[in-house]
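Journal club prep — side note

Before the paper discussion, L.F. wants everyone to see what a predicted structure for a comparable chain looks like in token form. Sequence:
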Amino acid sequence: MASGTERLTKLASCAGCAGKAGMQELSEVLRHLSDVSADQPDLLVGLTAPDDAAVYRLNDEQAVVLTVDFFAPLVDDPYDYGAISATNAMSDVYAMGGEVVLALNVAAFPEDMASETIAKVIQGGADKVREAGGVIAGGHTILDDEPKYGLCAMGLVHPDAIFRKGGAEPGDVLFLTKALGTGIITTAAGRDEASPEQLAAAVESMTTLNRHASHIAREISAHAMTDVTGYSLLGHAREVAAASDVRLRIIAPAVPVLPGALEHAKGGISTAGARRNREFYGEHVRLDQAVSEAMQGVLFDPQTSGGLLMAVGQDRASDAQARFKAAGLSAWAIGEVVTGAGVEVVA
């Protein structure tokens, strides 16, 4: 990290992460709020059927996609931290099929943090928003002992072209557009156990926009889509399964994993978020006994700025792979949609 700056990850914590009881309590709070928003006909996606972002119809041709996300540092480099946080925040817009047009910074920094460090964080975020075709038009910053940064991101989508978690159909093929393991790799890096190459691969993944992957999902008429973030692949798969009233069958050997993630998982590297994901979603997931503990750790690993998980009609699966390849993007067929409920993982 540049001279005169601190190691950012020393200050990071999971103080804001909810445990199983906290997640259940939050669900109860949101259930009450959903009653308030239920009689708003132009609120196309809100708390009545929660999804990746809120969507509000402006007219017959346009709807606003709105989301907010921020977190403490996962990496030491301040520019990378800002870029990762911004990429992660905008991902929910792409998961809904929208295009980012406007963003506001949401930030908290210690009073004694060097101004050049703060500038690099903000610049990293601004550059990713510019890459997305949007603009940062302001924001809000407070003083806090723990640095935090992210965005309130706004996008636009046609009201009839919104992607949702619901809509997956039996027979669909499941595609994932980014490898798993960012939580494991960044945790290992924080303990000086990840190699520079492993961390670089994770950072590259976390700073890759889901924008063009979302475009391809539109071209192939994906039936359902979400982005894989803090609730892990299995947690978000469970959400798709519940919203679509189907079962998602995931083939463990087909799931892509970032370099070093399995090795670190075998060595005992994990996160509190992974344990919470297993506690909260485990009852909805049937794991083949042949799936290793290390691979289970990866599947429950909370992702930062993860890829898109989409359900695609079997008749479009080959076309999907061809389109991703032609665009120079990754996409792995990791399973299928079947009748039933919940998620199953087979070896």
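L.F.'s comment for the group: Residues 1-5, 11-21 have pLDDT under 50 and may be disordered. Keep this in mind when we get to the figures.
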